[in-house]
Structures are given as structure tokens and as C-alpha cells.
């Protein structure tokens, strides 16, 4: 039997050989593009399954948007196919059907009826006050629209809409988690940015987050659109907003047409916002040209058509320059 | 009653000498504080994710404490043969069982108070209000749910051969009930007979542990429960725990201890 020292030396020799071979192979292997990216623990641990978790956290954020009133896999999810927090933000087209108030259906038995006392069973939205402001009537406290800054009464106290909407901050941790798990999921960036700037007044954070999204998804039209909205609505920097809207349209035209189902909703958003911007800047001819294009992509052309008529009438009344 | 209290005090003393509770409490505190220190868009008022994670950790910890403690009570007494001198005293097997149950339940209750106190501090540090009524309801419902869990684990400790198998089976069954128990009837409705009948029967026979889980309400600041459903749920817990304790007592009285 060889002495212990011989065994230890043999083992050390083998470990050194294995390590040297691994280093040699690493150098010889063709370099992947991803080698230049920073080390991502989630990517290493979860691989591609992280996309599934990203979706889970995105849905979780929407459940928070409803203060926990959310269908499980055992319930009818027709009215929650599109996340309400994303459709309310105007970043995705809503494809929900059915009644969002009554996905639970009628109680099947006495246990089912009784169990509804112990979990949230009323439909509310965080941006409208959430659980705090629900009026206690099953499923009829939400869905009404409030104008920015309007005062309304919920639990007997007056709240400004801005104050009430602050609760929407609670969806942010899950959206951030979702974006770190799947950086290619664009609606996470756009939804987060919308709520950050519109209800929390954090346009700087929203811009930073969108720029992070743009780094991961270069020239993405949806992110450019949301970025343009920040410059137009928050910074009042119409020149940069115009450039970003135009960059968004150009990017859309390069990437979307070859797709089986191009995102026409996004093009409609980009064009109508740009048209409105031109109108606000008194570039009426350019605005008319854009509204004509909006008509072609709008789900209901009657709206832009009516707007065009008003715009032309307004132009006719203006003294000629 | 004196015998039951005497046995229960021994169980409680034993539980607080063990490190399980302290380790779980420290882990819960550490994980919650680390998650709370994350900077989320420079907004220090975000709290619900923290409340949810903290409550989840509390639920997991409480189940671990309750199941592992109650599952080892009688097997440990048998293994160390201390059950014989205990039963040689003027104390019945049912009293021993009830003492074990009461000890585990009270000890779990004290552990729960510590956990929820930490939860309350974390919430108060970030939220303006402190909904004491909702928190008291949550801790009471949680504690009564543990009564059912402890009774099931005690019954399991008399039926299954080893505490490890009892622990595993109890964890799987209780986690299963908590996760999908409430939905069994919905699933059954879409099935054909006889699976439909079997699943519906199972739904009505299984303890409805979901009634005691008001984490969603606490996390999202829903108002406290109405008094009626709250007390009805507590009564249901007592009745269900009694059923399992009765079954455990019946098995224990017929069991050969050699």
C-alpha cells in the first residue's frame, strides 16, 4: 500500500492537471456574446426558467394592484388575462373579457361562502385607494374614473387623488424583481415607469429605469414611447419628446411589420401622442398629417376623424400667417 | 386538570430549552431586515412586500415549531422509557396526551406572540397606522389553527412508526390543505363520477385550515373581520382539534407501549 504522502501528492497532481485543462479549454472555447455581460446570479442559478418566475412576479404585482383580490389558477381568469395595472397604464392593449368583479362566481357550498370572509373578496384598485377606500359593496367600488387632482370621498375622509394614488407604490418591488429576472420583458419597464411618474411623481427614477430597459432592449419602441411621455408630460421638453416619439415610430417600422401579429396598439399610441404634441406646438399641418395616419391604425377611426374635423375648423378660423 | 397542567408545563420548559424557536426567530428577523434594507426607487414607504414575506416566514416557522415539537413528544417518552414512570403515577393516558397537547399549544402561542410582535414593529416602522384589531385577530386565528395542527401531529405520532415520517406526512398534508384545500370543490365540479364524489367528500372532511389564514387581509390593510365569522372560525378550530385529540386518545389507550 503506498504511503499517505504519495496519495496526497497524486491527488494534488490530478487537481492541478484538471484545473490547468479547464483553463486551457476556457481560453480555446469561442467566446459567447454573453461573456461580456456582468455576472448575473439569477441567470446562473435559474437559467431560462427565470422567465417563468418573472411572469409570476409580474402577476403578483397585479395582485397587489388589486389588494389581494385576484383569481387563482382554479378561478375564472378571463377578466384578468391582461394585467389591469398594465392596461390602466396604457402600455398594453386590454384583452380582458367578462366581469372582473365576480370571478369567484356564486359560492358552491356553505364552506365556500364562509371562507370568503377570510380573504379579500372585493374588487379595488390601488390607484383608487385600494382596500382602505372600498365602499363595502361587493364589487362595485371600482371601475369609475377620476380626473387628475379630483377630490372624492371613500372612507369618510377627503383625499386628493394624488394622495390616494400613492398606494400604488406597493406594486413596485415585484415589478423590479420581475425585470431583474427577465430583462427582455418590456412591459415591466413601461408599466413601472408609468406608475412611478404618474402617481408617485418620480420621473427621474422612471427615466433611469426605462434607460436600464433600453440598455437591455436597444431601440425598443415601447420603451422609447414611455420615455417620450416623460419628456412631454413631466419635463415639458417637447423637442426631445418629439425625437423620441419619432425614434419609436421608426423602430416600430423596422421591427413589427414582419411579425405575425404586429403591435398596432403601440403604433397607434406613438402616432396619436406625436400628433397631439404637434398640435400643442401649433404645427397644425404636421398634426393633420399624423392624425390621418392615426385614423388608419385606430381601433375606431371615428375618434381621430372627429378630431381631424375640429382641427381643420380651428385652422380655418385662424388668421393666415 | 392538575395532571394535565403538570405535563404541559414540562413540555413548555423542554421546548424553551431547545434552540429551534430561537433559530427560527433570528432567521425570520434577519431575512426580513435584509429585504427591508433594499432600495426600491428611493421610496422608503413601500411595506406590503415586507409584510407578506415576514408573515410567510412566521407561518413556516410556526408550522415547523408546532409539528416537530408535537410529533416528537410521545415517541421521545417511549424511546427514553420515561413514559412508564409517568404512567405509573395516578395519571391516565388521556391526561398525558392532553397535557402534551396543551404544552405544545401554549408554547406555540408564546412563540407566535414573539413573532407577531416583531411583525408589528416592522409594520409600524414603515406604515403610519397600527391596526391592532386586525393583528390580534390574525394572531388568534393563527394560534387556533395551530391547535388543529398539533392535534393532527400528536395523532400522527401514535400512528406512524417514526417522528421523521410523521413530520414529513404532516408537513405535506397541512401545506396541501393550506394551498389547495379551499379549491377542492371547484376542481371536483369539473370532474366525472366517482372522482367528483370522492374529491367533494374529501373537501368536506378535511379541516378547513384556510379559514385561519388572513395574511392577505393583513398585508393589504383590509379592515378587521366581522365578529361572527371570527368566533365561528375559533369554535370550528376547537371542535376539529377535539376530534383529532379524541382519535389520538382512542389510539393511545389501545396502544401497546412495549
Structure description:
The complex is a heterodimer of chains A (321) and B (258). Chain A has helices spanning 4-28, 41-46, 50-65, 84-88, 110-115, 161-165, 172-181, 186-198, 203-216, 221-234, 238-255, 264-280, 284-297, 302-317, and strands spanning 151-153, 158-160. Mean pLDDT of chain A is 80; it is low at 135-161. In chain A, β1 (151-153) and β2 (158-160) form a beta hairpin. By secondary structure, chain A is mostly helical. By secondary structure, chain B is mainly alpha-helical. Chain B has one domain. Chain B is 78% helix and 0% strand. Chain B contains 11 helices and no strands. Chain B has helices at residues 2-17, 20-36, 48-79, 83-88, 93-126, 132-159, 163-180, 184-189, 195-205, 215-219, 227-254. In chain B, α2 runs parallel beside α5 and α3 runs antiparallel to α5 (93-126). The two termini of chain B are 27 Å apart. In chain B, 40% of the residues are buried. Classes of the chains: A mainly alpha (321), B mainly alpha (258).
In short:
With about 325 residues, chain A is an all-alpha fold. Chain A is built from 14 helices and 2 strands. The radius of gyration of chain A is 26 Å and the shape is extended.
Topology, pairings included?
The complex is a heterodimer of chains A (321) and B (258).
Chain A: H1 4-28, H2 41-46, H3 50-65, H4 84-88, H5 110-115, E1 151-153, E2 158-160, H6 161-165, H7 172-181, H8 186-198, H9 203-216, H10 221-234, H11 238-255, H12 264-280, H13 284-297, H14 302-317
Antiparallel strand pairs in A: 1-2
Helix pairs in contact in A: 3-7, 7-8, 8-9, 8-10, 9-10, 10-11, 10-12, 11-12, 12-13, 13-14
Chain B: H1 2-17, H2 20-36, H3 48-79, H4 83-88, H5 93-126, H6 132-159, H7 163-180, H8 184-189, H9 195-205, H10 215-219, H11 227-254
Helix pairs in contact in B: 1-5, 2-3, 2-5, 3-5, 3-6, 3-7, 5-6, 5-11, 6-7, 6-11
Amino acid at each position: 500500500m503506498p504511503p499517505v504522502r504519495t496519495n496526497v501528492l497524486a491527488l494534488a497532481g490530478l487537481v492541478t492537471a484538471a484545473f490547468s485543462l479547464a483553463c486551457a479549454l476556457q481560453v480555446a472555447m469561442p467566446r459567447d456574446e454573453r461573456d461580456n455581460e456582468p455576472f448575473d446570479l439569477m441567470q446562473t442559478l435559474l437559467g431560462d426558467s427565470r422567465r417563468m418566475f418573472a411572469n409570476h412576479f409580474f402577476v403578483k404585482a397585479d395582485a397587489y394592484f388589486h389588494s389581494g383580490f385576484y383569481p387563482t389558477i382554479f378561478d375564472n381568469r378571463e377578466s384578468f388575462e391582461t394585467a389591469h395595472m398594465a392596461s390602466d397604464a396604457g402600455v398594453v392593449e386590454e384583452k380582458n373579457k367578462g366581469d372582473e368583479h365576480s370571478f369567484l362566481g356564486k359560492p358552491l357550498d356553505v364552506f365556500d361562502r364562509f371562507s370568503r370572509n377570510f380573504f379579500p373578496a372585493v374588487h379595488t384598485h390601488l390607484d383608487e385607494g385600494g382596500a382602505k377606500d372600498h365602499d363595502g359593496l361587493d364589487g362595485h367600488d371600482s371601475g369609475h374614473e377620476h380626473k387628475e387632482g379630483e377630490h372624492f370621498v371613500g372612507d369618510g375622509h377627503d383625499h386628493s387623488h394624488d394622495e390616494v394614488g400613492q398606494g400604488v407604490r406597493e406594486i413596485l418591488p415585484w415589478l423590479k424583481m420581475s425585470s431583474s429576472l427577465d430583462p427582455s420583458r418590456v412591459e415591466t419597464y413601461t408599466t413601472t415607469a408609468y406608475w412611478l411618474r404618474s402617481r408617485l411623481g418620480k420621473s427621474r427614477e422612471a427615466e433611469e429605469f426605462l434607460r436600464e430597459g433600453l440598455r437591455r432592449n436597444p431601440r425598443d419602441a415601447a420603451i422609447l414611447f414611455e420615455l417620450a411621455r416623460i419628456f412631454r408630460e413631466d419635463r415639458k421638453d417637447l423637442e426631445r419628446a418629439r425625437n423620441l416619439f419619432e425614434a419609436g415610430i421608426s423602430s416600430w417600422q423596422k421591427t413589427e411589420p414582419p411579425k405575425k401579429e404586429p403591435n398596432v396598439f403601440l403604433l397607434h399610441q406613438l402616432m396619436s401622442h406625436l400628433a397631439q404634441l404637434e398640435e400643442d406646438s401649433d404645427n397644425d399641418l404636421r398634426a393633420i398629417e399624423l392624425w390621418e395616419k392615426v385614423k388608419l391604425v385606430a381601433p375606431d377611426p371615428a375618434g381621430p376623424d372627429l378630431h381631424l374635423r375640429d382641427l381643420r375648423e380651428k385652422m380655418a378660423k385662424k388668421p393666415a400667417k | 386538570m392538575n395532571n394535565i397542567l403538570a405535563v404541559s408545563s414540562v413540555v413548555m420548559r423542554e421546548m424553551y430549552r431547545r434552540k429551534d424557536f430561537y433559530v427560527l426567530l433570528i432567521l425570520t428577523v434577519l431575512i426580513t431586515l435584509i429585504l427591508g434594507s433594499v432600495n426600491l426607487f428611493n421610496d422608503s414607504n413601500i411595506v406590503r412586500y415586507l409584510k407578506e414575506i415576514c408573515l410567510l416566514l412566521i407561518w413556516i416557522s410556526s408550522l415547523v415549531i408546532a409539528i416537530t415539537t408535537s410529533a416528537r413528544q410521545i415517541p421521545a417518552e417511549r424511546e427514553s422509557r420515561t413514559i412508564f414512570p409517568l404512567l405509573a403515577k395516578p395519571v391516565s393516558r388521556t391526561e398525558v396526551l392532553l397535557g402534551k397537547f396543551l404544552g405544545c399549544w401554549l408554547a406555540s402561542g408564546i412563540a407566535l406572540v414573539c413573532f407577531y410582535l416583531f411583525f408589528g414593529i416592522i409594520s409600524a416602522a414603515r406604515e403610519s397606522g397600527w391596526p391592532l384589531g386586525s393583528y390580534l385577530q390574525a394572531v388568534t386565528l393563527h394560534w387556533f389553527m395551530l391547535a388543529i395542527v398539533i392535534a393532527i401531529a400528536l395523532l400522527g405520532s401514535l400512528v406512524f412508526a417514526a417522528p421523521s415520517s410523521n413530520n414529513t406526512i404532516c408537513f405535506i398534508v397541512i401545506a396541501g390543505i393550506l394551498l389547495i384545500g379551499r379549491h377542492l370543490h371547484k376542481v371536483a365540479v369539473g370532474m366525472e363520477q366517482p372522482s367528483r364524489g370522492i374529491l367533494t367528500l374529501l373537501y368536506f372532511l378535511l379541516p378547513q385550515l384556510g379559514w385561519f389564514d388572513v395574511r392577505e387581509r393583513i398585508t393589504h390593510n383590509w379592515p378587521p373581520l366581522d365578529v361572527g365569522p371570527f368566533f365561528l372560525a375559533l369554535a370550528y378550530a376547537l371542535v376539529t382539534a377535539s376530534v383529532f385529540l379524541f382519535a389520538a386518545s382512542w389510539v393511545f389507550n389501545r396502544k401497546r407501549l412495549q
